[in-house]
TrEMBL record:
Entry keyword Cell inner membrane: no
Family classification: Belongs to the methyltransferase superfamily.
Organism phylogeny: Eukaryota, Metazoa, Chordata, Craniata, Vertebrata
Ranges that cross the membrane: none
Cellular-component GO terms for this entry: cytoplasm
Biological process, per Gene Ontology: methylation
Descriptive protein name: eEF1A lysine and N-terminal methyltransferase
Residue spans of biased composition, Basic residues class: 434-444
Keyword tags: Methyltransferase, Multifunctional enzyme, Transferase
Stretches of the chain forming a coiled coil according to its record: none
Pfam families: Methyltransf_31 (PF13847), Spermine_synth (PF01564)
Top-level lineage group: Eukaryota
Stretch list, region Disordered: 429-449
Alphabetical list of InterPro entries matching this protein: Lys/N-term_MeTrsfase_sf, Methyltranfer_dom, SAM-dependent_MTases_sf
């Protein structure tokens, strides 16, 4: 039996529908949207005393079910198919006396103006608007004009639709230009396997008198999980919001049937603000053999730790899933702009939504565990928010790390998953004679930092490697004495501070292009200037060029730790101009003959990286490289003369000697920081 039309145009043909309903017989045909799913939305907008018109009724049971549950009885159904109208009259004549079926074309209706309070359309607009040809759009305009004519002011046009972009856009533009209020409801699914994977929507369009000269639009969307509508500013935003929900439904359908070959990422947004509240990653582990209890788990990443390798990279999350022992692990990152009511609150908020992302084969009524580190959601306190013309929006925040340590971080929000600068905080030390705070006493205000900056601790592995590379200075038995060091890129100031404090005779010059960063480093990261530490607010390119022209060969070490603001380039550190041959020649010019140029290179583009290395080799005859494990960073140590070449054994000996000189009685030293270990993986390029 062939029921499908030969072309989309047949959807508007009475002959096609007569043939369709004769061949189908008495069996009702529902395009989509079962009555139990539609009922919560219809109840909001259809009152028992309303006079309701159903356009393109077909042999759907929707009108009958509305009548039978007492939602409304004064219902007029129209259709262009004589066959289906006769079927439906026979079906309801004796049991539903107040409901009628009329043979009528909705493009040319016989009803008087303002005759109905509700016009209901289930799939009719979708069937008519199959393309955007001029003739089709003219029919749709005629349909809308007739609906507008027969509706009272204050009446509602309820259109059940799959909300294809061109259909939704047409409806919204037409009625909003007429001054009507447009609200789009997403229909909550029953949870059963549906004929249509795409979600069903109901356009609720309320008729208002058009005010001459008014261009105001009222456009709203109601997601399935909430009753309160969200206002949007334009048709494009409304279409985009619907498209997001359609994509989500397709995603859920796909990953419920087959395992994910690649990790899937999505954001769940706050109901009030529309801003991201949770970032989810779906990680399937092929190494885990599924059993009844290890199909699926949710892992809540503690606040502030989402940038760590284990949680912030694909390989890290893959390792986390395998070690957790679940076939599918859903990691959940919490956003700094949001407030959370503990693990229990997050679990209650996410329980329904995460089950939509469950893996295939999950047993019915399976309890899905929520996991975390230490069983809590961590601590994050935003200390400072600001923006600058050069760095954009940024935040300074304190987060609880693994164990009892707290860390202060600088984050540029244009690249929010990267920690720009980090420092460990010292635990508050009681004054002599001061008693420890009792547990039942009022806690310190969250606006107060838990302690001062620990300047002896380098949080970043690449900073540790950069400092260790200073053992290349001088001869095999020499230790750095009076040093002149230039650091380009201040950030929070941890690197220049460490060099200043531990190389007691070093004179450190720092170049920072953004004056806001100097203020942040001084106020929040314990940075200060003095006789041996000076900051120059300048473009590093200009500063080095000026030095090369006026004062060559004056620095023992030049260190570049400067980020690129251009996220379109496959190299985030340094900006490309800092590794071009003419500029590298200027860097070599300001170095002493036995000096060292230390570069933090972060480059994901393999071809671009080879170009950078070629440029460095062309200028510096001796080049060492140290890859930072688990990160993209690679530290390059470049020397102007090949005479200082060291083999691994000599490099280790120099590093141990340097560490011995830096460790002084009474001066704190991080016991985990072993300079020789930082240089073990160094190789000559």
């Amino acid at each position: 039996m062939e029921l499908l039309p030969r072309s989309p145009a047949e959807f508007a043909s009475a002959r096609y529908w007569d043939r369709f309903f004769r061949q189908r017989g008495q069996r009702s045909f529902e395009w989509y949207g079962a009555f139990p799913e539609l009922c919560p939305v219809l109840h909001k907008y259809v009152r028992p005393r309303d006079k309701v018109l159903v356009v393109g009724c077909g042999n759907s049971e929707l009108s009958e079910q509305m009548y039978d549950v007492g939602m409304c009885e004064d219902i007029v159904n129209i259709d262009i198919s004589d066959a289906v109208i006769r079927q439906m009259r026979e079906r309801s004549a004796s049991t539903r006396p107040r409901m009628s079926y009329l043979l009528m074309d909705m493009l040319h209706m016989d009803f008087p103006d303002g005759h109905f309070q509700v016009v209901l359309d289930k799939g009719t607009l979708d069937a008519l608007l199959t393309d955007e040809e001029e003739a089709t759009l003219a029919k749709v305009d005629q349909m809308f004009a007739e609906i507008s004519r027969v509706l009272q002011v204050g009446g509602r046009y309820l259109c059940v639709s799959l909300a294809q972009a061109h259909v939704l856009k047409k409806a919204v533009e037409y009625f909003s230009q007429e001054g009507w209020v447009v609200r789009v409801h997403q229909v909550a699914s029953s949870g059963d396997k549906q004929q249509f994977v795409l979600p069903v929507f109901v356009y609720v369009v309320t008729k208002f008198r058009k005010i001459p000269g008014s261009a105001a639009q009222i456009l709203e969307i109601c997601p399935e999980e909430q009753d309160k509508p969200m206002r949007v500013e334009s048709t494009e935003q409304l279409v985009a919001a619907v498209k997001d929900r359609q994509h989500y439904a397709l995603l859920c359908s796909q990953i419920s049937k087959t395992p994910c070959k690649e990790q899937v990422s999505l954001d769940l947004c706050d109901k009030e603000s529309g801003k991201p509240r949770y970032t989810l990653h779906v990680v399937d582990s092929s190494s885990v053999k599924p059993s009844r209890d290890n199909h699926f788990a949710i892992f809540i990443i503690p606040q502030g730790r989402e940038t760590e390798w284990l949680f912030g990279t694909e390989e890290g999350r893959r390792q986390l899933a395998a070690s957790a022992g679940f076939g599918r692990l859903l990691t959940v990152a919490l956003h700094r702009e949001q407030r959370y009511e503990g693990m229990a609150g997050i679990q209650a908020e996410l329980s329904g939504k995460v089950m939509e992302l469950a893996p295939p084969g999950l047993p019915a009524r399976q309890q899905v565990p929520f996991l975390s580190v230490g069983g809590d959601i961590g601590v994050r306190a935003v200390r400072h928010c600001d923006s600058s013309p050069l760095s954009g929006e940024f935040v300074v925040e304190d987060v609880k790390g693994d164990g009892t340590c707290y860390f202060r971080r600088l984050i540029f929000l244009q690249n929010r998953n990267v920690v720009q600068s980090e420092a460990r905080l010292l635990a508050p030390t009681p004054l002599p004679g001061q008693k420890k705070r009792r547990k039942d006493k009022k806690k310190a205000s969250p606006a107060e930092p838990p302690g001062a900056i620990d300047k002896s601790y380098l949080c970043c592995e690449h900073h540790k490697a950069m400092v260790a590379g200073l053992c290349l200075l001088g001869g095999p038995n020499a230790l750095p004495g009076e040093l002149a060091v230039l650091v380009v890129g201040l950030g929070g100031g941890s690197l220049p501070l460490f060099v200043h404090d531990y190389f007691s005779q070093a004179r450190v010059a720092v170049v920072e292009i953004d004056p806001s960063m100097l203020e942040v480093a001084t106020r929040w990261f314990g940075f200060s200037q003095g006789e041996r530490m000076q900051v120059h607010v300048s473009d590093g390119l200009d500063y080095v060029a000026k030095l090369a022209a006026e004062a060559p060969a004056q620095y023992d070490a030049v260190m570049f730790d400067v980020d690129s603001k251009d996220l379109t380039v496959g190299m985030s550190c340094p900006p490309p101009a800092f590794v071009e041959k003419p500029f590298l020649q200027k860097v070599k010019t300001i170095l002493k003959p036995e000096g060292v140029f230390v570069l933090n290179l972060v480059c994901r583009d393999a071809r671009l990286k080879e170009e950078v290395l070629a440029a460095l080799r062309a200028i510096f005859p001796l080049l060492y490289a140290r890859r930072i494990q688990g990160e993209v960073n690679e530290i390059l140590f470049c020397q102007p003369s090949p005479a200082g070449r060291c083999d691994p054994a000599e490099l280790g000996a120099r590093a141990r000697a340097l560490e011995g000189a830096l460790r002084q009685p009474g001066r704190p030293w991080d016991s985990s920081y072993v300079l020789a270990d930082m240089l073990q993986a160094v190789h000559i390029l």
